[in-house]
C-alpha cells in the first residue's frame, strides 16, 4: 500500500530547500504521497530551546560548505543567500493559507519562493522584493500578501507549528513516515527505505 | 598519492563511535592513513558555544533513534549507554598519552573504551569500572590510569582541544582530508570521495 511522506518545512532553511528538490523523485520511486506541512522554524526553535546552526560561529562557517556538497552531489543549484537569515513569517503564512484552501497554486508557490531565496539569492526580507518575485513568477502578489494577513491563516500557521512541536519536531526539514521521524536533508535515504519497507 | 584522514574524536560521542567503526574499511578502500586526534568534546563545546544534542529534549529523544538507524545499516552493535553522558576526561587523557608516546597499545585502547561504552554499556563514570574494564581487556589498568594523571598528558589534551577548536572543530566526530572538514558519522561518504579525489 502506498505510504505518505509528511514534510515539515520552512522556506528559510537551506536544508529544507535541498530536501524539497529531492521529494518528487522519492515520491516517484516509492509511489508515496507527499504532504507538505508548513511551519514556522523560528517558533519551533523558541518552543523547543533548539537554535539554528548559525548560532555557533564555527558551525555557521561549516554548514554552507556542507550544504554545497549536498547540492553538488544531487546536481541542484544553491546559493548562499547574502540576506540570510530570511524572516519567513509572511511567506509561511501564505503557504499554509494556500494549503488550507487546497489551492492548486500551492506547489508552484513553494517552488517560486525556494527558488527566489536559494537559487536567485533575493532579499525576501524586503516586502517589495517579495511582491516583485511573486508577480514575476505569475502570481497575483497582492492577493497572496492579503492571504498572508488573514487572521485565520495566521492562526493556522501558529497551530501547525505547535502541532509540529508536539509531534517531536525540533528543526527543519523534518519528515515523517507513519510514526517514524527523520530530521534533515541528509536522512532522505532512510526516508526512502521506510517508504519501501 | 595516498592521503591522510585526520579523525577528531571523544569516546563520549556515540557518533564518534559509529564513525570509528567505519574507518578501517574506508582506509582500506582509499589506501588512506588514519591519524586519530583525541580531544575533549566538553572543552570544544565550551570554547565554541556549541551544545550537545541532548541539551534540547526533543532532539535528545530523536538522536538515539537516528544513531540506531546508522548502526543497523552498517551492521555494527550500539547500545544506548544508561549512564550517558560519560565524563571522558581521564579516558581521553590516557588516549592522547598513548598517542603522544606512540604506544602500540593506542588502537587497542580506543577499541576497548568504545566497546565498553557503546557496546557493553558500562558505567565509565565510575573509576572502579574503568579500571576493571581496562584490566579485563588485557591492559595494565593502574599504569594507564597513572598515565592519565601525568601533568604533561593533561596539558597535551588541553592543547589538542584548543588546536581542534582553532581549526574549526565544533563537534564530534570531525574529519579532515587536507583542508576539507567534515562533521559527523553521516559524512563519511563525502570523506571517502575526498580521499579518492
Report the CATH architecture of chain A. 3-Layer(aba) Sandwich
CATH class of chain A: Alpha Beta
Gross morphology of chain A is globular
**Radius of gyration of chain A, in angstroms, nearest whole number:** 16 Å
Counting copies of identical and different chains, the oligomeric state is homodimer
SSE succession of chain A: EHEHHHHHHHEEH
What is the topology, as strand order, of the major beta sheet of chain A? 2-1-3-4
What profile does the largest beta sheet of chain A have?
Answer: 4 strands, mixed
Number of strands of chain A: 4
Low-confidence stretches of chain A: none
Number of helix segments of chain A? Answer: 9
**Number of spatially distinct domains of chain A:** 1
CATH homologous superfamily title of chain A: Glutaredoxin
The largest inter-chain interface, given as chain pair and residues per side, is:
A-B, 26 and 26 residues
Beginning-to-end CA distance, first to last residue of chain A? 10 Å
Helix vs. strand class of chain A: alpha+beta
Q: What is the residue-mean pLDDT of chain A, rounded to a whole number?
A: 97
Helicity level of chain A, as a percent range?
Answer: 55-70%
User: In percent, how much strand structure appears in the residues of chain A?
Assistant: 5-15%
CATH topology of chain A: Glutaredoxin
What tags apply to this protein structure?
4-stranded mixed beta sheet, homodimer, 197 residues, Glutaredoxin, 9 helices, alpha+beta
